[in-house]
């Protein structure tokens, strides 16, 4: 890339469902002022809606964009990784198919990223983007009455030109990723985050740990419909993603709490409010309503925090009881071990006292064993001598003297 040249950008739009919403997204993208160094890839993740696939194929051909049809449904994360790996020399913008962009939005996002060497991701303001939401923070908002998303984008561009805020994470509906950051951090985790939700948070945390910054590009506004492809599974996906994030990054919860409590984009939203009032003074009533909604949102959050504090208090009490029970068990175990040591000591003393007697008894037993062995040998010897005598001539010659004549005489007389 030569002096004054901008890095190439690949805009990746994964599509799956919702033809009407996807049509509005691609039409808005085509109508925006894309720079010459930007290219577009629409990835059809084996949509079950044939009409959506037909439209995307024809529209991409008309616009000169790349259309990719996955041979099977891979899920959002795998589709995004495919697109990112297919453009190894380009920065990446992941754009959901339920968004609408306007004007020179790409150039403004890129300017935000290249404001510093370690800016890794950038996310615009939106009506529905949690920590990047406007007018009410951390809420899914309708568009302010009387304002189109294009009007809001133009207003935001004027009110916060070149301004940004640092965030703990990017928000995936419209996420600019610097190529150098992507190369260092690696792709999205397909195994852990499956079909999509939370993959951008995991990527942002890995980027953060490597020294990259995640920014809110405060001079860009992108409309976001919200969960067009997930069809009611958002809650389940979010719960799964939150669990994975807390398992991998124990500090994740406290980072989000700090962001929600300190609201780093509060001043930037106030600047947009002021610009609205300057342009349309009649919006004062609308702004008041929005502030009331913001207060209600804060009350809900305070209620949730109070509930969590109560839960934590109950948990602390339970843990204190468990700890005391463990201490009691340790004490009982120590006493039992001390008693066992005492008994073992007594047995050892008694064994030492009985040792001479045992030794004498063992000696006597050994002597008796030897005596038995000697007697056995004498008996064997005696039996041998008897057999020799019985086999001698003199024994056979004198056999008539040992004959029992009384028995012979009785048989003779009888």
Task: Tally the helices.
Answer: 14
User: How many DSSP E strands?
Assistant: 10
* Residues in helix, %: 55-70%
- Element-by-element helix/strand order: EHEHEHEEHEHEEHHHEEHHHHHH
Rounded Rg: 46 Å
By CATH, the architecture of one domain is named Alpha-Beta Complex
**Largest pleated sheet:** 8 strands, mixed
Average pLDDT taken over every residue: 85
**Beta-strand percentage?**
5-15%
The H-level CATH homologous superfamily of one domain, spelled out, is Spore Coat Polysaccharide Biosynthesis Protein SpsA, Chain A
Derived from helix and strand composition plus strand pairing, the structural class reads: alpha/beta
Terminal Cα separation, in Å?
146 Å
Low-pLDDT windows of residues: 229-233
Q: Strand sequence of the main sheet, in spatial order?
A: 3-2-1-4-8-6-9-7
CATH class of one domain: Alpha Beta
Task: Assign an overall shape.
Answer: elongated
Q: What would the CATH topology of one domain be?
A: Spore Coat Polysaccharide Biosynthesis Protein SpsA, Chain A
Structure description:
The protein is an alpha/beta fold and 414 residues long. The protein has a domain at 9-279: Spore Coat Polysaccharide Biosynthesis Protein SpsA, Chain A, CATH 3.90.550.10. The chain has helices at 19-31, 50-63, 76-85, 105-113, 149-159, 179-185, 190-193, 199-209, 234-248, 252-262, 266-279, 284-390, 393-397, 405-413; strands spanning 9-15, 38-44, 66-69, 91-95, 99-100, 119-125, 164-167, 174-177, 213-221, 223-224. Helix 1 (19-31) runs parallel beside helix 2 and helix 5 (149-159) packs across helix 11. Residues 229-233 have low confidence and may be disordered.
